[in-house]
Amino acid sequence: MRSVRMGACILPWVLFAASTAHAQTTPDDEVVRPPPGTPGSTVQDEPLTPPPGTPGSTRSTAPSGTQASAAPVAPAPGSAESKPAAPPAPAEDRFYALASSRTIVRLFQRRYLSGLGDAVTDNETLVPVYEYAALRVGDVDVPWGKDALDMRLEGWGSLDTVDVSEDRRLTGDLIEANVTGKFGPSYMTLGRQVAVGGAARFTRFDGVAVGLRSSYGLGADAYAGLAVTPRFHARPEYVLLGSRADSLLKHPDALPSASLTDAWLAGGKLSWSRYERFHADLSFHEEHQLQGLARRWAALDVSGVPTERLNLGASGAFDVFAAKLADANAFADWDALDILGLSAEVTRSDPSLFLSRSSVLSVFSLDTMTEAGGEATLRVIPRVELGASAWGDWYSDSSWGSRFAARVRAGWGVRDRLVAQLRYSRVAESQMGYNAVRGSVSYRVTEPLVATAEVQQYLYDEAIRGVDSSTYGSATMEYGAAAQPWKLMVGGFMTRSPFATLDAQALARLSFDIDLATGGTKR
C-alpha cells in the first residue's frame, strides 16, 4: 500500500519527478543564456518616448513653480487635442500560473559480477518511463484580500515497460497538493506539503501549517499532520515475510490491523531576520510511527553577513530523546580579494541518531564522525579558475581519514562557448584509499544546442573483488532555445566497476515549462 491518503483523489495525471539527468552533466559547466538585447534573446526594444515639447509628447512643459492648470492654451479647432481625453485604463492586476512537465525514458543494460570467481550474471534490461508534473498558481484575488491565495500541485509516476511484476509496473505519488491562504501578515496551508530545514530536515506530511510574520523581522510557524511514508509492513500478510512462520500462518486476518493515523508528526519554528544580513531560528520536530516515537529533535540555525565579502553560519540538531547532539555544522565563506575566495567548514555527525527510534536498526551504534577542512579558489587569469581543498575526518573508534583535491577550470570563446575542467582527488582511510581523476568538457555548438562529455577514473590502493579500478563515462546533448517552452536532452552513461562488468544507460528527457497566465489579467 502506498501513501494514498490524498493521492487517490487528486488528479491522477500528476506524475514523476527528479530529473536524474543532472547527475550526468558537470554542475560547473552550465551554459549562460544570452542577456537581453543580444542575438537569441526574446526581449524586444521598448518604444521611445518623445522628449518634452515635441509633437506627441504628453509631458507638461510649464515653467517650474507654475500650476499645470493655469492659463491653459486653447487647442486649435478640429485638432485631436480638442477631443475629450479618454479615461485612464485600470491598473492590471496579474496572477501567475506555471505548469511544468518532465518526461524521462531510460534504458538500463546491466551484467553484474556474481562474486564467485569470474562468473557473471545474465544481462538485465530495464526500460522505465518517468513522468513529473507540477502546477503552481499564485497571487489570486479572493473576497478577503488581493493576491491572497496560492495553490500548488506536484507529483510523479513511473512505468516499467519490461518488468513483468504487475505490482511494480505502475507506481507514483503526490509530492505536494495544497492551498495557501494569506491573511495580512499570517498564512495557512492545507494539504500535502513539505517542512524543510531545522529540526524537520525534510519531512512530507498531510496536514496544516500556519505562520505569522511581523514588521520587526520576527516569525512563528507551526505544523501538524500525518506522515507520508509507504508502510508495506502494515499489511498483515507482510508481518512475517521471509520467516518460516509465514508459511505456517493460517489466518492473516487474525493479526491486528494498524491504522495509518498512528503515524503523525508536529513541529514549529521561531525565527528572526534583520536587514537581510542576519537570520536565526529555533525549531522543534516530533514524529511518531506505528511502533512509537520515531524522532524528537530540537535545532538552532544562525547565519549572518557581517560584510559584503564575509558569510558566516552555524547549525546544530539535538536529539531530545537520547539527550545527544545529532548533527552540528559551522562554516565561513570569505572573498578575501576579487581574485581569491576562501571557505572553511567543520561538521560533527552521529549517524545512529538519524535512524528512527522505532526501527530495529536503532539498536546498532555507528561511529560518530568529525570533519574539518576548507577550499581556496584563485582567479588570476581571466576565464581560468584554480581550486584546491583539503579535509580531515576523525571517527569515535580512533580511526581517521583525509581528502585532498585540486582542479582547474577554463573557458574559451564568446561567453565561454567552450568550458573544460580537470580534477584530481585523493581519499585515504584506515582500511581503503583511492586516487580519482575527472575530466569534463562542455561546448555550445549553436546558441540553443549544448554538448557535454565526462570521464572519471578511480584507482584503488587495494583490489576490490579482484578489480583495482573503475571507469565511468557519460555524454549528453541538450537543445533548448530561450524563446521556446520546451527542452530536449539525450545522453548515455557507461560504467565498469568491481561489481559490474557492464552497466550501460541511455536517457532521453523532454521538458516543458509554460506560463499559463501570460497575457491574462484581472480587472
Briefly, what is this?
The chain is built from two helices and 23 strands. The chain has helices at residues 166-169, 244-248; strands at 96-112, 124-126, 128-142, 145-160, 170-183, 186-197, 201-213, 218-227, 264-274, 278-289, 292-307, 310-319, 324-337, 340-349, 369-378, 384-395, 400-412, 418-429, 433-446, 449-464, 467-479, 486-497, 500-515.
What letter string, H or E per element, gives the SSE order?
EEEEHEEEEHEEEEEEEEEEEEEEE
Structural class: mainly beta
For the secondary structure, the number of strands is 23
Biggest sheet layout: 22 strands, antiparallel, barrel
Using brief descriptors, characterize the structure shown.
mainly beta, disordered N terminus, 22-stranded antiparallel β-barrel, 523 residues
Task: Write up what this structure looks like.
This protein is mostly beta strands. Helices cover 2% and strands 56% of the residues. It contains two helices and 23 strands. The protein has helices at 166-169, 244-248; strands spanning 96-112, 124-126, 128-142, 145-160, 170-183, 186-197, 201-213, 218-227, 264-274, 278-289, 292-307, 310-319, 324-337, 340-349, 369-378, 384-395, 400-412, 418-429, 433-446, 449-464, 467-479, 486-497, 500-515. It has a 22-stranded antiparallel barrel. β10 (278-289) and β11 form a beta hairpin. Mean pLDDT is 78; it is low at 1-82, 231-249 and 519-523.
